[in-house]
Protein 1
Amino acid sequence: MSWNEPGGGDKKDPWSGRGSEKGPPDLDEAIRSLQEKLGGIFGGGGNNEPGSSMKSIGYLAAGAVVLWGLSGFYIVDEGNHGVVTRFGKFTDTTQAGLNWHMPAPIEQVQIVNVKQQRFIEVGYRSGGAQQTLGSVPREALMLTKDENIVDVRLAVQYQVKDAKQFLFNVANPSETLKQVTESAERGVIGSSNMDFVLTEGRSEIVAQIGKEIQEVMDAYQSGIQITSVNLQDAQPPEPVQGAFEDAIKAREDQQRLINEAQAYSNDVVPKARGAAARKSQEAEGYKEQVIAQAEGEATRFTNLLVEYKKAPDITRRRLYIETIESVLSKTNTVMIDVKGGNNLLYLPIDKLAKQPVPNVETINLPQPSLSQPQPVENIQRGAVRGRDVRGRQ
Amino acid sequence: MMQNKILIGIAAVLFLGIMCIFTVSETEKAIKFQLGEIVKDDYEPGLYFKLPVVNNVKKFDSRIQTMDSKPERFLTAEKKNVIVDSFVKWRIGDVKTFYTVVAGDINQANLRLDQIIKDAFRSEFSKRDIKQLVSTDRKIIRDILIAKSREVAANLGLEIIDVQVKRIDLPSEVSSSVYLRMEAERERVAREFRSQGSEAAERIRADADRQRVVTLANAYKEAEKLRGEGDARSAEIYAKAYTEDPEFYSFYRSLNAYRETFNKPDQMLVIDPESDFFRYFKSQK
């Protein structure tokens, strides 16, 4: 190749190199040199050495033809298709690898990437790290069937499935896809209720949108294949988000209240069961106890009775005396002969009771005082007892 | 100077050659004129010849074009304003008509189309309420609009591919009242949740309290029954033992009772010495 030949510092390219060789680009000079060469071709008389001129021009022409032919080679990368047109008319779709087409201006090739995942965004722009901030309300806000407004962000991924259709049928296919997406999206969401969109219906809606987009794009013969539709976000619109969050919180509150009550229940009921068990055990115990007591006492009495029957009188007397003895030995005992006296007896029993236990025999009975009657409450017990005692006489 | 002439000759031939051919690509439609008169307009893509000067060729984009009109307000059947954003997909159908009627100008075509579509929209929208427009009747409207516009568009040399309603929105002043309504609705839902929660909680608590009361009452019942059984059994035992000698029993029991009753040192008994116990206390009788 001529431009690889050594001998010229700045002669990388045959055409520009030649130009600089000839000095400043001068039109006259260029025409003259061309005249000379052409004159050689047609055997013109102006040239000194017609043979050599013809030869060189022939080589030049042949070289040009070869170069022209070589320029028809092109490489289609993996995942791409080449679309070849001859004078504007579609002739072939070529696959990956080395291909040749008739060089320009006869045939032209346009290379389309058919594997590349392209995508469009509706309702937001992801440009940058903060995806949520790139909201486009005009695209994102839409009406639902129940006349609510939702904020929907959608990403559609697509591939070129037919390079020929993609190139020739629709002006600006990606813009078209966007318009179609918006339309399909609004159609589907418009026929769904808000709650459905925001909660359980997401996957269904996405599938429906994808299907509708594909149908329309196929109808346009756009050569586009939708590979996935992603609902980036479906939310209530900004102004009402607080209320929505509160409703969600309310749901949590509901659960919390129920859980708290359940906790209370779980606390109270077993405790009550425990208390009930205690009660019944206590009653059981009481039952056993009274029966055992009764049996014990009855047996004791029965045994005693046997002996009593043998000597009723003496046993009776013995029992009586023993009992009185026991009683009197344990209590403070005052013996008063009230038979003769008819004056009111006054005993400050409460005071006596507070004194260290006195010896019965050495007790000093205080004089009854009529002038200073004690409060009734204080003497009541003693008085009653006194009366009882008196009454027995 | 011979070479000069030859050169000019060749250039002229080349130039004439170029003047004599033209290509029509896959994305184009072409019209050939002969002195202003259209002679051919149904070109397939490829290479064609023409006479220079006499013929000239105009090419038009044959791909599907979009008429994306500006959002506009329409009145619905219930006299509500809605903002509608739509687009029309069309391509050149009859290039001859397209050239003659709208001078082959896409913008002008869009303008004409826009008027037609708007009119059709207006009449369709005024028959329907928002609900129908938004949800149920989208496809119907689309079909009607395609059918209606197709006819008129044919007069412009256009072929309607599709008419789509992109957006049906409420005006912003209506939107804000929609937001208020949505807010109120959420509030209703929130309250419902909370009070349902309270209700359920109250039920659970009440149930727990009931269970406690019932459990305790049943336990009391059971306990009393047991105690009664015990009492009955003991009474039976006592009765059986004591009926053998009731008089002695009363005596014996009374003694026991005395012993039990008067057994604390801080009690005081005031006793008449005449009592039976002291029979021998004063004097031996």
Note: Chain B touches chain A through 120 residues (CB under 8 Å).
Protein 2
Amino acid sequence: MAKPKGITVAQTTAILISSIIGVGVLRLPLTAVQAGDTGAPLVTLLGVSVASVGVWVVAKLSMRFPNQSIIEYSEVILGKWLGRLYGFLMIAFFIILTGLGAREFGEVVVTAVLKETPIEVIVIVMLFMATMFVRHDLHTFAYIHSFYVPFILAPTLIIIVLSLKNANPLYLQPVFGNELNINAMLYGVLIVASLFQTGFIVSLIFPAMEKPEKAMKAGMWGIAVTSVLYVMVVVAILAVFGPEEVKKLNWPTLELTRATSFPGKILQRLDVVFLAIWVTAVFTTIFSGYMFTIRSLSQLLKLRDHKLFSMFFLPIFFVIAMVPENVMQMYKIIETVGAWGLVITIAPIFLLITAKARKLPAKRSGA
Amino acid sequence: MLKKSICTFCVILLCLPLLSGCWDSLDIEKSATILGIAIDKVESGDAQETGKITHFDEDDLTEEMIRLTAQISVPGRIPLGPETGGGGGEQEPVWVLRAIGHTIDDAMLNLQQELADEIFLGHLRIIVVSEEIAREGVERFNDFLRRQPEVRRTTWMVVSKEEAARYMEVAPKLERVPGLYVTAMVDNAVDLGKFPNDFAGIFWSHLSSKGQDGYLPYLKIKDEDNIEIEGLSYFKGEKMIGVIDPIEIGLFMGAINQKQGGYGAFIQVPDTKERVLVRAERRNTKTKTAIKDGKPEVHLRIRYEGEIEEKTVGNINIDDPKIIQKIEKQATKETTAALKKLIAKLQEEESDIFGFGERIRAEHPSYWNKQVKTKENWHNIYKDIDIHVEMTTHIRRVGMKEK
């Protein structure tokens, strides 16, 4: 195979945006409000900052090892076995994350829209669609993502703006929240940060970039766009419902679209529009998780091609998706997994420090 | 060969979920689309009516019975445009059904038991709750309505003076579908500045808020088949406790900074016995809160802009700016007094529909966190806080007549 042209900065940004925005956006406001009351936007902002540190570190590392992915350079930095262990943990984490993401998606669809359809069918169709697409290379991957990004961002923005006519700015005050509880708040920050974990996919993309030295730029733009969007979602929902009402809702973002109508009575409820976009957003997220899993695994096993695994993982994701008994248990698991996952996604900081200490890339450039 | 057929089999198997079409497809004529529901109390005699549909043993349920009256649209008979010809007039566009139950969902399930088609609530536009029920508390309905994914938050909830079921059957001439008329009534009242925008979603938010109480339109049936907005029912917590008059809704809207004015009031022209009708066109309100000596204080500064629409027959001319000024002063005096009276009444009944508590919570969090914290506490404090009202009235227009 001829060496393909690299992935551009804009494409990397798009991949980052559409990978991060996924199922989590439906519950994000609830998590943030539970943690910070009216301080929810602040919690979100802090969560975003934690996440952006993660992306910053990965970008730094990628600039040090321009031709290697995180699986490969962690072996270089930590040594063969430790590095492999880390790689393995990362893959395992992404498998669970993707499986649970598919489940969360199914759960929302079955509760809110397709009440008759078995959840298994919804989950498997979504996973199957991702399976079809992961067989392609990173370029197709990048194209698919950059194609969908506008369809995810634009309608979401429109819904936010339209919903603001029912907003009450009092609900946004005080900015630190009424019952400030530092522990709850910090926990909330971590949970919000864990929503950004699919952004870790960039560690896979950076080495394939046309100009790896621009990795930082792409990473920071991606994080900036998603965080602005997430903070806006939280602000809009808090201002429309008020903190106490948000706490009563399972998926506040979905509820917002149900309380918003298009002016002129063209569309009296926007949830239909929103769900269509949201399906796309979830697809791109699952797609990324899937891609990360099989690409990383093939790198870990030093295989030339990742297509081999595409079908192999479908049942694994499916089984993981079916583990939780109900929504409440599912969210408990997702929270726990997310919190543990932070350890994995924060670990690159140690990689970076070790790499700096051992002055690694200089010795092995071109490896 | 074998390999090939296995392959084909796999492909077919995988295509099954993709090609099976919509599992949830529900034809419009096969669903019972409910446009409006009314909730009433069950008179003791009716209680035995229900079959054993949602419970094994009647005695286990302590919840009081309610009667649900639903208006179901009849497919094909809802006119989509202006009526052409007189033929279709005989058929009723809706069908009204009743069911009783211990809770709203119980009643729904009982209703489903006597209905061939599946109930669909996606087009529910109006929920009429009778005053009797509203006074006992509405939170027991809200749970179902929030959980049900088909119900929109933009549905209106209203309180009715008489039996709510009657609203499902009144058929005003303006609208062929009775339920939609009630919806149009409240929707248009919002557009005309006669009622603050307060669909169910907003009402629920108010109920949940720690520093605010909810309010709903209060309707009354007039002359058998017409409906009137009789006032605004205010709540304390989840219970309705009283009604204020329509003219007071205007004052209330002033206090919560709803800009569009819709009400007019007769104002006595000073030094005469004549009156002019001054209509509020726009209001602008600035609310300030403060904590003084450990007690919250609210300052309302309301600016009215109005128009003289009519004067009672008499000799007085209103072409003199000085007289207009006097009228402005008089209007200010009268409205201020009326608003103060309204506020005092609501304070006494501990219903903070103005949301002053929310303001204190937002603007003085340290006070709120130490002294208030819960809605009950707020009600106690709200009772005797000072609320100052400062008003100005500006008359901008007198219409097209000189004198």
Note: Chain B has two domains: 29-53+61-77+92-244, 248-402.
